[in-house]
Amino acid sequence: MKWLQIKKEHLQQILTWRTSEFVTQFMYTDIDDNMENQYLWWQNISNDPNGRYWIMEQKGQLLGFVSLTNIDWHNKRGEWNYYIGEAKYGMLGGFIGAYVYNYAFEVLGLEKVQGAVMAENVGVRKIHQKLGDREVGFYEQHVLKNDNWHDVYLYEMTHERWNEVGMKFKKYKAEVEEK
After folding, report:
1. Cα gap 105→84, rounded to integer Å
2. Which residues, at least 6 apart from 147, have a Cβ–Cβ distance to it below 8 Å?
3. Which of 90, 73, 176 is nearest to 127 (CA)?
4. Where are the domains of the chain?
5. Are 76 and 109 in contact (CB under 8 A)?
């Protein structure tokens, strides 16, 4: 798997994914199908010293988006996020966390990576459990979307725990384009 730096030519694809029902149903917010706003978003993330953002590619196919955000370099922790852009590649989502943890711990030197998942996103919650994440609780009625409140479950993985539970996933190392 390759993680490519997001370039101008990727913006329309990311916008198409991000505004699709398949992706947006589990996102905290919905965005407008607006390329000007997409370009501004890209400019902001391109200059974010506390975030890393990529488009994922496998065998020449663009699959989706992955990021490490809100990186606290002093306390060596950050948050990970991803989405697979199309349902036909959904089965690959179960492995993205392993790629993220290997990169975050081995390359960036982080000690903790956190994730947050809307309660209704049962598949991604199961992925966190499969990877050995510790569920640390949930925020009740945390996100208001489409006039409905949604709980958000919180997960964390420490470098130490990954060294214990992640051994079977050590081979999942992305080919990462760096800034």
Report:
1. 22
2. none
3. 90
4. 2-176
5. yes
Q: Tokens at residue 178, please? A: 């760096």
Q: Is 78 exposed, middle or buried (0-12, 13-18, 19+ CB in 10 A)?
A: buried
Could you read off the pLDDT of 42-79 as tens digits, one per residue? 999 999 999 999 999 999 999 999 999 999 999 999 99
CATH number of 2-176: 3.40.630.30
Of the candidates 57, 14, 156, the residue with the CA atom closest to the CA atom of residue 97? 156
Encoding tokens for residue 106? 């081995």
19, 33, 114 from 86: Cα distances, Å? 12, 17, 24
For the full predicted model, state whether its pTM sits above 0.90: yes
- pLDDT tens profile 9-29: 999 999 999 999 999 999 999
Please give the span between the terminal C-alpha atoms of the chain, in angstroms, as a whole number: 18
DSSP strand pairing (112-118 vs 77-84): parallel
- According to DSSP, residue 69 is labeled E
